Amino acid sequence: MSLMRLAYASEATFEAKPVEKGVEPHVARILMTSRKNNAKDQLVGGLYYGNDRFFQYLEGEEDAVRRTYDRILKDDRHRNIVTLIEEPLKSRTFSNWSMKYVPLSRDVRAFLDDQGLESFDPAAFTSEQCEKMIELVRNSSQEQTLATRDDPKSVGDAPQVLSSGMKTGLIVAGVVLVGALVIGGTML
Ligand code: FAD
Predict the structure, then answer these.
(1) 56 lines ligand 1 (CB under 6 A)
(2) Helix, strand, coil abundance in the chain, percent, nearest 5
(3) Ligand 1 pocket, mutate which of 8, 30, 78 (most atoms under 8 A from CB)
(4) What is the CA(18)–ligand 1 centre distance, in A?
(5) How confident is the model at residue 16 (pLDDT cuts 50, 70, 90)?
(6) What single string gives the DSSP state of each residue in 24-37?
C-alpha cells in the first residue's frame, strides 16, 4: 500500500459563533467527526481554522486519504477549496494525531509577519509557505483536546464570548455588590 499527503485551503460558509471550550462550535463538530473517522482509517494530520478560513493537512494510505478528501470536497460547511499539495509520501511525518486542531494563532501571526502577509489566506500560500504551515502544525504542542484556547485577537475576528461592554457591566456589578456587603456588614 502506498502513502500520500494532501493539503488544501478553503473558506468557511458558516458564520462563526462564540468560541465554546476553546473551539468555534462548527469546527468542534468537524473535529469530532474527523477524529472518529480518521482514527479508523489511520489518517493523521492537522486542521487550522482562522480568519474564516481552513488549512488542513492529511497523510496516510492513499485510498483512505482520497476517500476522505472526496467527502470533504462535498461538505457545504466550506467552499472555494484549493488543493495545495497532493503527492506520494515515503513515510509518515506526523505522530498519532487523528486530527490535530491547532489554535496556534500567535505562531501563525508570527509566521504571517515573517512572510510579510497581512492576513491568513492559505489559498494564496506558495509551496514554501505551505510547508512552513505544515511544520507549524506538526510542531505545535497542543493537547489533543477540544478545550484548547484560540486567541481571537491574533488572527481573524472570532467573536468574543463577552463583549467589553458586558465585561465592564460585570465589573461594575461586582463593585456595587462588594460595597453593599461592606455597608451591610457595618450596619449589623
Ligand atoms: P456523518 O455521520 O454523516 O456526520 C457527522 C456529523 O457531522 C453529524 O453530526 C452531522 O450532523 C455533521 N454534518 C455532516 N455534514 C454536515 C454539513 N454539511 N453541515 C452541518 N453538519 C454536518 N471528515 C473526516 O472524516 N475527516 C477529516 O479529516 C475531515 N476534515 C474536514 C475538514 C473540514 C474543513 C470540513 C468542512 C469537513 C471535514 N470533514 C472531515 C467532514 C466531512 O466533510 C464529512 O462531513 C464527514 O467525513 C462525514 O462523515 P460521516 O459520514 O461519518 O459523518
Answers:
(1) yes
(2) 45, 20, 35
(3) 30
(4) 20
(5) very high
(6) -HHHHHHHHHHHHH
Query: CA of 27: how far to CAs of 31, 40, 47, 67, 104, in Å?
Result: 6, 20, 9, 20, 15
The model's pLDDT over 28-67, given as tens digits with 9 standing for 90+, comes to 999 999 999 999 999 999 999 999 999 999 999 999 999 9
Helix (H) or strand (E) holding 103: none
Return the C-alpha cell found at 72: 470533504
* Comparison of pLDDT for 186 and 117, the residue scoring more: 117
Angle between helices 127-139 and 105-115 (to 10 degrees): 150
AA letter at 56:
Q
- The DSSP annotation for 116-184 comes to T-SS--GGG--HHHHHHHHHHHHH----SSS-PPP-TTTSTTPPPSS-HHHHHHHHHHHHHHHHHHHHH
Residue 141, Cβ neighbours under 10 Å: how many? Answer: 5
- CA gap 84, 6 in Å, rounded: 7
Cα radius of gyration rounded to whole Å, the chain: 21
Ligand 1 atom having least distance to the Cα of 78: 36
Instruction: Give yes or no for a contact between 93 and 59, defined as CB atoms under 8 angstroms apart.
Output: yes
